[in-house]
Amino acid sequence: MLAYIARRLLYALPILIGVNLITFALFFVVNTPDDMARMQLGVKRVTPEAIDRWKAERGYDKPLFFNDEASGGAMLTETIFFSKSARMFVGDFGRAEDGRDIAREIVSRMGPSLAIALPTFIIGLLVSVSFALLLTFFRATYLDFWGVVLCVAMMSISGLFYIIGGQYLISKLWKLVPISGYGGGLDAWKFVILPVLIGVVSGIGSSTRWYRTIFIEEIARDYVRTARAKGLAEAAVLFRHVLRNALIPILTGVVVVIPLLFMGSLLTESFFGIPGLGSYTIDAINAQDFAVVRAMVFIGSLLYIAGLILTDLSYTFVDPRIRFN
Amino acid sequence: MFRFSGLRRNLCVMCVPLLAGLVASACGSAWNDPYPGEERGANVLYTAFTERPKHLDPVQSYTEDEITFTAQIYEPPLQYHYLKRPYTLIPLTSEAVPVPRYFDAGGRELPADAPAAAIAVSVYEIRIRPGIRYQPHPAFALDAAGEPRYQASDREQLRGIEKLSDFAHSGSRELTADDYIYEIKRLAHPRLHSPIFSMMAERIVGLRELGAALQEEAKKLPASAWIDLDRFPLAGVSRVDRHTYRISLHGKYPQFVYWLAMPFFAPVPREVDRFYHQPGMAEKNLTLDWYPVGTGPFMLTQNNPNSRMVLERNPNFHGETYPCEGDPGDAAAGLLADCGKPLPFIEQAVYAREKESIPYWNKFLQGYYDASGISSDSFDQAVRLAVGGDVQLSDEMRDKGISLLTSVRASIFYMGFNMLDPVVGGLGEQATKLRQALSIAIDQEEFVSIFMNGRGIPATSPLPPGIFGYIDGREGINPVVYDWVDGRAQRKPLAEAKRLLAEAGWPNGRNASSGEPLVLNLDTTTGGMGEKSRLDWLTRQFARLDIQLVVRSTDFNRFQEKIRKGAVQLYYLGWNADYPDPENFLFLLAGSEGKVAKAGENASNYANPEFDRLFEQMKNLESEGPRGAERLAIIRQAIALLQHDAPWIYGFHPKSYTLGQVWLHNRKPTDVGNNILKYQRIDVAERQRLRQEWNRPVLWPLALLAVLLLVLVLPAAIGYRRRERGTAR
């Protein structure tokens, strides 16, 4: 297994370089270093000399990919791409354009992101799987029919509607929890309830339908008939046999997103004033802070690759027949 | 059988603290109270910010988001009187508003009314009041020997230090003239990128040379190294004694005193600069840009611009009292009730980050913010327009005792013509008439009514109300665009615009000789919601003259680039005043500020030698004193010229609408004075009472939810039992 993991990690290297290259190219197609300088220095009373100084100080006065004024390896290394990208591979994300240390900022924002994303993920998974199992149990009945209709209706509604509607009903009309904000420590719970609730409710429709499809497919198999034939209760059939055998398709979709929970949610964090990594990314895009955008895309890619590896590993735990040779 | 008992136990464990929290909250305060319990009943002002400040270093901070904080912490020598209008400069840390002394090229002193051309150097001598002390800060901490404790730490000594409060010791010291001199030198620091360096380098004697010397020094040192500015002389700034310093300027620049009321000229002690440049500090985000150090009434104790920033009363504040004079009407408005009382009134100000307007607005309605602006989403809920155009609070707001403050901002939004463009530009008669025709055709009154909810007044010149030179009434109208009818300005009829268009060589919007239709291009930035309807409206305004308008929307950077290169025909821009002087608006049309030729702020590239002459005369005169009338006459001539040449379609001056809770006192709108937090007073008991009253939780939905769950679960449970007990069919 270790050899397999090592091989997958090695595969990740060119993927990360590629992602970094694409991010770099896309960012600089839209923003020139001059634009970045103007964004940071403001639009009032900014002189061309000030812009040149800003660029030189941050190394944005070099060519993007190829330095034909240099010689040898410096033709590639004396470029913005190399100087800004190479250090990320050793975990040095550098500083944001406002001078803040990016790694420190990421660490401080990870907690709030996880405080929302983790409960939303776990509760959402439990609720969706339970609801899907319930619908499977009552398959081909009115309960199943209306349950699916409800799921389709829920998945057809925009996430923004859930957020605004939830804030309006629960916080504004009923005054049960704060409408937005975040507090550290024990104070955090009252801010977390609403976004988590909205996150869970907004995700139930699509995930329940997906899990129901998996369970319905699974329930038609021979081993389920055998289990019933030997007299097992339906709950035991569903939880002990169907759920366990349906885990591979569930894990395929679920494990891969676990590492990405660190990245937070762009929309939820913005509307609920959660100082997490989602809002950090949005702020960086708005401020044309390439250093932060690049770091967040890099970490996102890294976590996604980690998620894929974890998914593969998880197969061996749920299905002993799978081995990494 | 699958066992639920473990899961049930875990759920119970998770629910216990949740329920405990709910009960605790229910006993103490409203459930939706977003603030920690320990702040309940405290003398704290709560407000919000939408954009995180980028810089809190006084040498860099320039935007409103930043000055909101820095103005409460840093104290430049001067400030604006809180109540008096027009805006009046008064001393803050200085003993008096400095009066410049003038010298000719030979160093001989000139009289105060000497012609500007004869003045080679203006000298401002500023005397600071003794006894003013800085906020407590570790940079000032001394050891037993009287030496600074934290001036030469290395990374090892900083282990375990993550924030300023982790330093065991702090200290303070008296404010001196050297601190102001140090800050002026910082304007030239090449790594600080002060936005006003280039402009000040033209004014302050020796600042450009200092910048060059520091640039050379910076090249020799690592990027994070400290540069001791005391080693570098600045010819134009000198220390007279411990509390007095002099600033020498090239020529005459009467507007300089306004800059002395901005944080750019606030004091920064050398030891603070050195403290923050110790190795390892920047890695921990311990920088002056993040943790300001000042003598003002407040100090920044929490800086998390992602969620919450907290200003606390500076225990070393030198003391100041609430003003006893104001405008007529201020006494009736209760703004003089606190006359002579010591400032500041509040202990703490909490700024929470609200990126979206809906939560911000709803929290204000729930009483969790003490003041709020009015976004377009909430406009109808907050105010209504009465017959006659008066703005009144809605019943909901009145019932809550909320007050509305309105003021015309010292700003202008305008549509500019690129005067270098062959069709709309130039000072020739035909192009001028084309611009005049468009100025008449675009109905600004309608624009303000439809798109601004009436929150603005149509502009007749670059100068907004409240700025010296602005004239109201008949004499103030733009005679090219308006007639004075029945005691009010009336936009000229469209027929007049069509006549001017025909005289411009475009009868019915077609070229008189070739018959080609007139197509004009408007460059604008991609806007948010409502942008399309605004542009559609504008297209229809042009169509009234049979002119085709092509809208070229682009992102802000591309737009700026086009403006810089003069690759636009028409464009939209705005300007907020730095200081309340007509020079700060009229310079936007000065030839010396041409965007293409000089990379200045004149985006229209308007260059009329007569206007430039008048502008030069005007900017060297003071509004007050014997030559005020002369200045006013020159401004009138300059404005008449601008109205005729029409390099801009003078759009509108926006009006700011702010709402305040009934418990918030001493609020007066101000555009240029930013250190206003110290004047605000809160009736804490009233706030607490009303918050409780407004935020009683509604519990029936929870009961309903429980019933609904039961209704859903019960049939499922019955169905399950029935199926499990049923026999095979």
Radius of gyration of chain B: 30 Å
Oligomeric nature of the chains: heterodimer
> Helix amount of chain B, in percent?
25-40%
By DSSP (H or I, 4+ residues per run), the number of helices of chain A equals 15
End-to-end distance of chain B, in Å? 24 Å
Describe the sheet with the most strands of chain A: none
Number of strands of chain B: 27
Q: What best-fitting shape of chain B do the alpha-carbon axes yield?
A: globular
Number of distinct beta strands of chain A: 0
Largest sheet of chain B: 8 strands, mixed
Distance between the termini of chain A: 8 Å
Number of separate helices of chain B? 21
**Which class best fits the helix and strand makeup of chain B?**
alpha+beta
Mean model confidence by pLDDT of chain B: 90
Low-confidence stretches of chain A: none
Mean pLDDT across all amino acids of chain A: 87
Order of H and E elements of chain A: HHHHHHHHHHHHHHH
Proportion in helices of chain A:
over 70%
Q: Which range does the strand content of chain B fall in?
A: 15-25%
Fold and architecture overview:
The complex is a heterodimer of chains A (325) and B (729). Chain A has helices at residues 2-30, 33-41, 48-58, 74-77, 80-85, 102-137, 142-156, 159-173, 188-219, 222-229, 234-245, 247-254, 266-272, 277-286, 290-318. By secondary structure, chain A is mainly alpha-helical. Chain B is an alpha+beta fold and 729 residues long. Helix content of chain B is 30%, strand content 18%. Chain B is globular and about 90 Å long. At the A-B interface, helix 2, helix 3, helix 6, helix 8 and helix 9 of A face helix 1, helix 4, helix 8, helix 15 and helix 21 of B.
List the main descriptive attributes of the protein structure presented here.
heterodimer; A: 325 residues; mainly alpha; 71% helix; globular; B: 729 residues; alpha+beta; eight-stranded mixed β-sheet; five-stranded antiparallel β-sheet; 27 strands; disordered N terminus
